[in-house]
Amino acid sequence: MIDTGELQHLLEQAKGNLGLPDVLPGLYDPIRYSLDAGGKRIRPLLCLASCEACGVDPEEAVSQAWGIEMFHNFTLLHDDVMDRAETRRNRPTVHVKWNEATAILSGDTMLTLATQLIARCPDDHLRQLLDLFNSTAIKIYEGQQMDMDFEARADVSVDEYLEMIRLKTAVLLSAACEAGAIMGHASDQTRNALSRWAENIGMAFQLRDDYLDSFGTVETFGKVPGGDILNDKKTWLLITAINEAPDAIMPLLGGERSQAKIEAVKAVYSSLNLPARIHELMDRYTTLAAEALVEANISPTDRDWFTGISASLAQRQS
Amino acid sequence: MIDTGELQHLLEQAKGNLGLPDVLPGLYDPIRYSLDAGGKRIRPLLCLASCEACGVDPEEAVSQAWGIEMFHNFTLLHDDVMDRAETRRNRPTVHVKWNEATAILSGDTMLTLATQLIARCPDDHLRQLLDLFNSTAIKIYEGQQMDMDFEARADVSVDEYLEMIRLKTAVLLSAACEAGAIMGHASDQTRNALSRWAENIGMAFQLRDDYLDSFGTVETFGKVPGGDILNDKKTWLLITAINEAPDAIMPLLGGERSQAKIEAVKAVYSSLNLPARIHELMDRYTTLAAEALVEANISPTDRDWFTGISASLAQRQS
Questions:
Q1: Does the pLDDT at position B317 exceed 60?
Q2: Which uninterrupted H or E stretch holds A266?
Q3: Average pLDDT in the B79-84 region?
Q4: For B92, which DSSP code?
Q5: What is the per-residue pLDDT for B313?
Q6: How many angstroms separate the first and last alpha carbons of chain B?
Q7: From the list B26, B78, B111, which residue is nearest A149 (CB)?
Q8: Which residues of chain B have a Cβ shorter than 8 Å from any chain A Cβ?
């Protein structure tokens, strides 16, 4: 039976075995700092849980779990340089605490370390894991590029947005489950089912993030909401409003970063019923996830663990 | 018999098959731009030649050759951001022509594309190639970090400097030959011999670059010399001068970037006989390379090709 606490314990135990040497602190300290920030470790947990659900000791997948987490933290580190973000999880970002050159080089090192962790596997899994990891990485870069391209465009469609978040966010959750399933010697059917479950959960996860950034509270969102609105960030909410009520929303973009702007933009969103509609969309992805999960040949109790993850995302947070 | 022109032709022919899609020009155009800059393509040539010297059609190693070249160009792209370099090979750098976020993300993409190219091989070579590639990449990041650390230190030893250039420059030439030898089904002895040949040639290559940056001409160096001196760059020349004649060299560091500074620093170098001594050091590495080459089980005519590469580096250019 999958026990989240046990998997978290397994992850923390394995953290000392990631191949970070005690030399060159200028290179490796920012990597430790980045990994020490914590976070929910949702991706490595999904990797370990998928392996266990396939009937294999989750310890077999712990290197792949950390490979996925290392990769995720590498993308955060480089994204923070690209976005010139000053804080992450209430601490200064690496390029602020050290400098930009350090952030770039430590991030590059994390990408190669991630590849090495993924490759810590029996030879008969190497090709499949490596192809999965590399193709997932390419999709994530493409998603990031689409996200940056969107900021300069006024004609982004909702479908384009959904494809962007699929690439930028959902495919890594999917790869986490798929890597765990590969290490768990899963059948193609179970591997694909867990992969599709995670991709749909990832879509719901990102849409919830979009929703909470505008309509959440510090408690539900985990940080001060309103950032997306102040930055005119092209989220599902803004893109839908631009498409359906351009005359109402366009005059509110640009200009002063104020609480009044936040309230005015939220009023447009509410007038279009977007809070309810984004939850309907999230529910649709959660349903697709549930349908995929049925096709995985895993035990009912293990299935309940995955359903519990979905449920915690699906419930309204405010 | 190894024919440089034929290998160059093979490389250019394979350039269309690198996996760069026609979508997302913001991501992929900077990669094409970076690869189109040309350069001598010394690393992929060494990879193909090593494969051919082992008796295997060099076409078998063309993906690995491009993987190494893609990786090399990725390091140049990110190094240029870190150094805030404005031109490379007489063209604007990627972060100048596009922007910094593009340079970071396109570089990340090149690293993953390089890994994918390296992995285009029969399954029985995958583990060995991937381990070689990843461990080489880590060494190069460590060399770059040492190089950055050196700039803030006044007590760098010559041995530390030589270790830095081994990591930052020589090991990639070595990996190019080793990857070609692996694709050529070389014996351990031949693979190690070609690898050591290339590492020593790489050392001579970097020392010649150090020499020419101070004592070369536009013709021999390929660009305006003097940049290292103007930037107080910690090369073998400057480190040796700081260690042996601190009173003469230290007052010349910092301050105005002028032709007078270049001449004054060169005068100190000449007073210590550094031009002759750096050539002696280069000759020592070239001799070590020749000794390694003898141990490779390759034909005399193929050995001549490698010796020709060494000779072109060993000859004094000014």
A1: no
A2: helix A259-271
A3: 94
A4: E
A5: 66
A6: 32
A7: B26
A8: 23-24, 26-27, 78, 81-83, 100-101, 104-105, 107-109, 111-113, 115-116, 119, 123, 126-127, 130-131, 134, 137-138, 141-142, 144-146, 148-149
